[in-house]
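Internal ticket - ligand job 399, fe (iii) ion:
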Amino acid sequence: MQRLWRHARLATLVDGGWGLIEDGALVTEGEHIRWVGPLAALPASMEIGEEIGLDGALVMPGLVDCHTHLVYGGDRAAEAEMRLNGAGYEEIARAGGGIRSTVSATRAASEDALLHGARRRAQALMAGGVTTLEIKSGYGLSLEAEAKCLRVARRLGREVPVQVRTTYLGAHALPPEFEGRSDDYVDAVCHWMRALHAQGLVDAVDAFCESIAFSPVQVARVFEAARALDLPVKLHAEQLSDQGGAQLAASFGALSADHLEYLSDAGIAAMRAAGTVAVLLPGAYYMLRETRQPPVAALRAAGVPIAVASDHNPGTAPGLSLPLAAHMACTFFRLTPLEAVAGITHQAARALGLHDRGLLRAGLRADFAVWELNHPNELVYWFGHDPCRAVVQGAEVRT
Ligand code: NIG
Ligand code: FE
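stdout (structure tokens):
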């Protein structure tokens, strides 16, 4: 059945601009967009089964959060307090806190408890317009616990009306039982990848390339294993120092390299050549009170696609609003509002290897968000509340 969504101000984002259409209409069929344009130009041949009036609200593509760590046990509020009292992130990590403390809490949590926490957080993101969500593992760090977290992510995608893409991040941190044996752990990560993939739990593979995590040589082994399974890769790269991670990721044709505060010119050139998306994570930059900014002007000049994500995680980015992340990308990193909005829609979809969403265009998925706003630039103007009236996913109203 074809459904007509009428009387909307559309921001289609097609052709590199806002793509504004006053008194616009969308026709959807099944889960896809069949037609987009001014209501007055609606072809008479369309057989409309149902009409939904949108009262002149702003309709934009559903938002895509392309980098989150949504499934975990516990929280790190005490660690945040320590940091506010002067301790550093790396110092806490080296002392066994940081990611490892979340690993203990995640291992101890039941699958249902993890689902409960992740569902609440997913609903908060959806209230801010999100219709597609990437979720990384990386707080289990054993085959059993990584599988548990990835199963929770899959269940979330079935039980909550948001589309979930899973990323296996076994190479996030060294678990205590592998202390002093990081190469053995990398072997285990590669081995588990095959088992997790065989269970249908993995859409992509990620790693944390950093002096407090895994070296480029170790990450390359993880990526070789992913390549052997035909799985796309992404990388936490150049967050705290320049490890040459972006070049490494690009050499494997990575979908994205993420963080990038310490990205070099060589990294930018390699990403450009490989078509690797730069995913900026201003929430972590903000929470860590980082002062070094990712080289946005150079990325822009090189034509590297730029996306923005929440990086939601309990340690460095506990925020749950993607529009706020986009707002911060403008304020801190000098993205233009149009770049930031593209960064949380079609560029974010690209960072997940998805080419069927992120714009309002015939043939793409009918995933959109309805906003109590006049112009899409307001999405990165207001902060502290997300004036999202509804999200529509696959042509069904979900909230
Ligand atoms: O994306 N950089 C590594 N991973 C997370 C932080 C994880 C944590 O501190 O729990 C990030 O910022
Ligand atoms: Fe992250």
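Auto-summary: DSSP finds 14 helices and 16 strands in the chain. Residues 98-99, 102, 208, 236, 239, 284, 311, 313-317 surround N-(iminomethyl)-L-glutamic acid (ligand 1) (CB under 6 Å).
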